[in-house]
Predict the 3D structure of the following.
Amino acid sequence: MKATAELQVVPIGSGVSVRKDITRIVELLQKYDFIMETHALGTNIEGELADILAAVNDIHETLHEEGSVRLLSILKVGTHTDKDPTLAGKQL
Amino acid sequence: MKATAELQVVPIGSGVSVRKDITRIVELLQKYDFIMETHALGTNIEGELADILAAVNDIHETLHEEGSVRLLSILKVGTHTDKDPTLAGKQL
Amino acid sequence: MKATAELQVVPIGSGVSVRKDITRIVELLQKYDFIMETHALGTNIEGELADILAAVNDIHETLHEEGSVRLLSILKVGTHTDKDPTLAGKQL
Amino acid sequence: MKATAELQVVPIGSGVSVRKDITRIVELLQKYDFIMETHALGTNIEGELADILAAVNDIHETLHEEGSVRLLSILKVGTHTDKDPTLAGKQL
């Protein structure tokens, strides 16, 4: 099932600057076949729902392996059956 | 990997009252081996991260099959490596 | 206090298409002195925290007056004291 | 206008344990005339929308004055006009 989503991963307790973690997260997302738009409060993703959810699991596992102690992800996922959801279709 | 999460699934365009959908979502979550607390703004979940993500996919697929046209899920997921995250451990 | 924020207002029960409401919300936000970026999952806002919060109140009141029966807003707000938060500064 | 809300304030970069901050946030919320339920992923609030938004401003200002360098709040706000929203009315 196709979905549009927004993912924001917040490293907690790894210091005030989280830029390095954000760069790594976007790098991990790029392994997937997603249409993506990174913005100031997260990354918008268009792709298969199952792949988006797998990417969340992958990001948490990888960042913890690479030293992150605590992570909070905020994920919004939208699906509908009347037409395929696209990021482009949600622009005004 | 163990995680604590909060899932709120919002049916859009299925009417002002969403109680029937919420009951169905909690029913679908109960198939998993989760510790759960349903509250006014979502359901808190303690369990394996992979299972929590699988449940989100399952809920979207099932509700669409059962007639929902548009769904928005808001998922917060917390993981940490210094100790196992639990819902009980997050109470004040 | 300066803040960066993301606001997504979800009209519930007003039909599957929410484009008209989203257009109205952006119109209401434009009355404020914000730097804004509207994207597929919300509108990013840079401005005074008090103004951002006033805008949320304004949007709920105005949309209800104009006929919306049920609204859910998801607001993320970031502030920090080490430097002024900006949307531009959060780009990779 | 009455609202139901959920507020989660995440201190970033103040260490892995955020319990002390959470205790302070709940203390600040208790100054308001809210019905509240603190749970593992935030605090549910029933009250006037304007008061809830004022509390968010108050919490950010106070925690920064008391030393927090970076804060992220995730606020969900629900309002409807067909009946007064209550936390109790949202229980299954």
